[in-house]
Amino acid sequence: MYPRTEPREHGLLTASDGQSVYWEESGSPDGVPAVFLHGGPGGGLGNRGYVTKFDPARYRIIGLDQRGCGRSVPLAHDPAHDLAANTTPRLIADLEELREHLGIRAWVLNGVSWGSTLAIAYAEAHPDRVLGIVLMAVTTTSRTEVDWITEGVGMVFPEEWERYAAFAEAHDPAYRRRESRLVEAYARLLRDPATREEASQAWARWEDVHISIGAGGFARDPRWEDESFRHAFTMLATHYWAHDGFADPPLLEQVDRIGHIPAVLIHGRRDISGPVITPWELHRRWPASRLVIDEGDGHGGTGMVAEWVRANDELATGVHSNDDSEGVH
To answer: Can you tell me which residues form the catalytic site (predicted)?
Structure first.
C-alpha cells in the first residue's frame, strides 16, 4: 500500500439543500481524479486508510463523509438533520455538487461495501462522469440482500439472531418476527431518542456477528465505543436498508448504462453477510468488468486489499494511456 499522506485541502461544502458535506483532497493535484465512497451507510472516512490504496503520484484523491456522518453536519441523530433528505439520489447530487466545486470533469470511483452501491448508482446516473470503477465487498442493497443480511443470516447465527429479533419484538409494538421486516422495526427504534441507545447497541452487535466469518471470529468494533458514531451509523444504515437503497428500479436492472466502463469487482468467498452471488450477477451483466474472488477473505481482508491497490494502479495506467489532460481534468 501507499503512504497515509495528510490532506492537501479540505472543507465543508454546503449542498443546495443547506446541509454540509465534509471533503478532503490528497495526492497529486495533476493526477487522475478519484473519489472514495465509504461504507455503512454512515461509516465515514475514519482514519483515512483509503488513501493508502492510491498512488499519490498518479492520483488526485478525493474523500468525503457522506451526509449525516463523520465530519459532515448536522449528524443523523442531530434534531437539525433531515433524515428524509438522506436518499441515494440526494447522495448522488452531493457528489455532483462536489465534482463541480472541485472543477473535475470525470473521475475514477472507488467504493467499499455500501460505498459500492453508491458508486454503481452514481455511475448509472452519470456514466459520462466516470473514468473507471473499483469496488470491494460488492453490494447493490437490493431487498433480497437486505432481507438476507437482517433475517436470512439468522440461519447461520440462530442464537444471536434470537437476541437481535427479541429486542425489536419487546420494544416495537408493530414488529412481529417473520411477519414484518426487522430492519424497519430497528429504523423506527433508532429514530426514537427513548430507544436509540439500546437499539444502536443491539444493531452494532449484529453487525459484528454477521461479518465475523472470514474476519478471524467475533470481535467488537472499537468504533462502537463512540456513541455519536454509533448513533449516526445505525440510524443511517437502517434508514437506507429499510428503503432497499432507494434504488427504483434496482441497480442490477440498469447495468447496461455502465457496461462499457472498465471495472474491477473484488469480493471474499467467505463473506456470509454479502454472498458472492451479488458481484457474480453484476459481473455477468457488465461486459467491461473483471471479477476477483478471494477464497480466504470475508467482508474485507488483506488479499482483497492487495487486489484493490493493484486495480487502482492498473486503472491509472489505462486512464493515462487513453485520455488527454483536458479529458481527465
So the answer is: 113 (nucleophile), 271, 299 (proton donor)
For residue 51, is it left (φ>0), alpha (ψ between -120 and 50) or beta? alpha
Domain spans of the chain?
9-141+246-328, 144-244
Task: Assess whether 77 carries a catalytic annotation.
Answer: no
* Model confidence, pTM: 0.95
The closest alpha carbon to 310, from 275, 266, 269, belongs to 266
Instruction: Catalytic residue, from 271, 273, 283, 329: name it.
Output: 271
Categorize the per-residue pLDDT at 321 as very low, low, confident or very high, splitting at 50, 70 and 90. low
What CATH number does the domain located at 9-141+246-328 have?
3.40.50.1820
For residue range 173-230, list pLDDT tens digits in order: 999 988 999 999 999 999 999 999 999 999 999 999 999 987 777 889 999 999 999 9
Are 151 and 176 within 8 A, CB to CB? no
The answer to whether residue 113 is catalytic is yes
